[in-house]
Amino acid sequence: MDAAITHWINSFAGQTPLLDPMMVAITQVGVPIIVLLVVVQWWVREDRTHVRHVAICAGLAFLLGLAINQGVLLFIHRVRPYDAGVSHLLIAKSADWSFPSDHATASMSVAMAFALQGLPRRALAFFAMAFLVCLSRVYVGTHYVTDVLGGTATGFLGAIIVRLLYRENTRLDRFATSIL
């Protein structure tokens, strides 16, 4: 079923001249744009200290989620769908294993960090961007749907762990949020 859904989503690749460049662009610059938008949060005027705390949480969740992925990659060696003949690749080949998706982890960890910290409008915006990044990874042929779901899970896990361990208004947090 995973291969069938992946193939169906990827079947649109190469068929629509307008959608292909958009999906390639999203897959290539989506995560950097999300990171840039988190950085920009540092200078918001409203509820500055809390938003800065959330930006730090998002960055920590991003890093922790990717670290978790590296641990998973030690045990799971899933070939990419284009190597298995399931998808048509629109971008350059990747050198690592397919599961879990680092792009999904990175984008979803940020969105989940904002959701867990009580910033729902920002969280929705980040979730929408993260969804597009995840969809683009399957569309361009570099991931299975379950790779993206696995990356989403590690991103969520990273954000939850950060939420539990990095508390607002601690001495470290007050120092970090007062920078600049």
TrEMBL record:
<feature type="transmembrane region" description="Helical">
    <location>
        <begin position="22"/>
        <end position="44"/>
    </location>
</feature>
<feature type="transmembrane region" description="Helical">
    <location>
        <begin position="56"/>
        <end position="77"/>
    </location>
</feature>
<keyword id="KW-0812">Transmembrane</keyword>
<dbReference type="InterPro" id="IPR036938">
    <property type="entry name" value="PAP2/HPO_sf"/>
</dbReference>
<dbReference type="Pfam" id="PF01569">
    <property type="entry name" value="PAP2"/>
</dbReference>
<dbReference type="InterPro" id="IPR000326">
    <property type="entry name" value="PAP2/HPO"/>
</dbReference>
<feature type="transmembrane region" description="Helical">
    <location>
        <begin position="123"/>
        <end position="142"/>
    </location>
</feature>
<keyword id="KW-1133">Transmembrane helix</keyword>
<protein>
    <submittedName>
        <fullName>Undecaprenyl-diphosphatase</fullName>
    </submittedName>
</protein>
<keyword id="KW-0472">Membrane</keyword>
<feature type="transmembrane region" description="Helical">
    <location>
        <begin position="148"/>
        <end position="166"/>
    </location>
</feature>
<feature type="domain" description="Phosphatidic acid phosphatase type 2/haloperoxidase">
    <location>
        <begin position="54"/>
        <end position="163"/>
    </location>
</feature>
